[in-house]
Design goal:
128 residues, mainly alpha, 6 helices, 0% strand, rod-shaped
């Protein structure tokens, strides 16, 4: 992940904009993107600071509050697919991606059993 640009450069850019210089000319002079100068100016007007916000961090999983429902559904119908589980969650008002469901199940150790009725390809002996 890229480090944020220094506060010194941000302050100088915002100062130049507040003195009446255009964001484009300030961006060109300091060698940064115009959008960065615009965002720094907006942040300064809104908060009085040009310091960057916290980067990264841990995001709490969306499906944690619905763990009991998910475990119950998997124990009731072990053949339930990820897309089926996603559809049932959507019916309850929980909009998540297929990947979010898969990651939740993986993190919780809830795995789907592979189909043991069909033999795996390559497991049969060749008749010669």
């Amino acid at each position: 992940m890229v480090r944020p640009i220094s506060n010194d450069l941000r302050k100088r850019a915002v100062s130049a904009v507040s003195k009446g210089e255009s964001c484009r000319s300030v961006a060109e002079r300091f060698g940064v993107a115009v959008s960065s100068v615009v965002k720094w100016s907006q942040r300064y007007r809104a908060t009085g600071s040009v310091a960057p916000d916290k980067m990264g961090g841990h995001r709490k999983p969306v499906l944690d509050p619905h763990r009991a429902f998910i475990v119950e559904r998997i124990t009731e119908t072990p053949h339930l697919t990820l897309h089926g589980l996603k559809a049932e969650l959507a019916a309850r008002g929980v909009k998540v991606s297929h990947n979010a469901v898969w990651l939740f199940l993986r993190r919780e150790g809830l795995r789907f059993k592979k189909n043991t009725v069909r033999p795996r390809t390559g497991s049969r002996r060749r008749l010669s």
